[in-house]
Amino acid sequence: MLRRLALLFVLELTAWDVASDGEPLVQKCCGQQQVLDSGHVCRRAGADVSWDDGGDPWWWLPKNSVSLNHSPTDTEAVTQALSSLRAVYNTTAPCGQESRLELVNLPGEDMDEFRLHIGHQKVHLELLVSDLSPEGALLPAHSFCVDGVRVGSELLLVAFACACTGPAPCVRKCCRDYQAYDLTGGGGCVFVTEEEEYRDPSTGHWRPAPMDPEASRSYFLLRNRKPNCTVRSHRLQSNTDDFRLREDGHLLVPGGAWLPPEEFCGDHVLGNASVTVVLTCLQSASAP
After folding, report:
1. What pLDDT digit, counting tens, does each position of 31-41 carry?
2. Full-prediction pTM beyond 0.90?
3. Do residues 41 and 160 make contact, with C-beta atoms less than 8 angstroms apart?
4. Please, which residues bridge with residue 100 across strands?
5. Are 108 and 114 in contact (CB under 8 A)?
6. Considering the domain 170-281, what is its CATH architecture?
7. What span, in angstroms and rounded, lies between the C-alpha atoms of 173 and 203?
8. Where are the domains of the chain?
9. Where are the beta strands (DSSP E) in 50-197?
10. pLDDT per residue as tens digits for the range 103-144
11. Alpha carbon separation from 157 to 25, 39, 145, 215 (Å, rounded)
């Protein structure tokens, strides 16, 4: 189950945009009768939807994870709140994959990664893992969409959100969570074994060390993302403590250079969490 959570991210996103007729809106990534396949391509749902939604037009929203401005969240209250929303279809997140958060709710598991807040002309998307975003981060409604994704026989609920367009920087972890960078065989992301995870739980969960350990988190962390290089990238390797993150997302590397956040990703080395590998664009040499 831990392996299936590798795409999950945590932050709080608030959508303040309202539809033109005064109704708060929620965006569905695909068409009304479509779901995403495992490759995140919209497909005709066919019989799958009737099996999952029981005729509910809002089957693609996480109704078991709805907050109504501190009101009770019983079925009747949720149904009434949803009736005030307007769905907008075929509205994928307007950013490239390299800057897009992917959020997942697992049916039947007590490990939901986001929930919906419905209130006075506002729709909020709150993400429930606390170490991957600035506290109280806000995104406008047009910056995220929600839908269902078919994985085998299960229908998961997902949200895609553009987090890198605001003032908070996006820092990239090269591999998914529960993965580390394997220096052998040309390099690449490999899942950490249960034995390695038991020995050092941080191995598959690289997080940049801040310049100021007392400072509040100021960035979003995007997992399984490589640097946005115009040419190719190259690899730096050193002790984890040798890399330090500034509040604006720039990374201090051995030798004194600063790397801008869009031009690097970091991760632990497989089998040795005390060593960090950083993939960086060749042009990254210094920072302001």
Report:
1. 988 888 888 88
2. no
3. no
4. 162
5. no
6. Beta Complex (2.170)
7. 12
8. 3-162, 170-281
9. 66-67, 86-88, 100-105, 114-119, 122-127, 144-151, 154-162, 170-173, 179-181, 189-191
10. 787 766 666 777 777 766 677 777 677 777 787 666 667 778
11. 18, 14, 11, 33
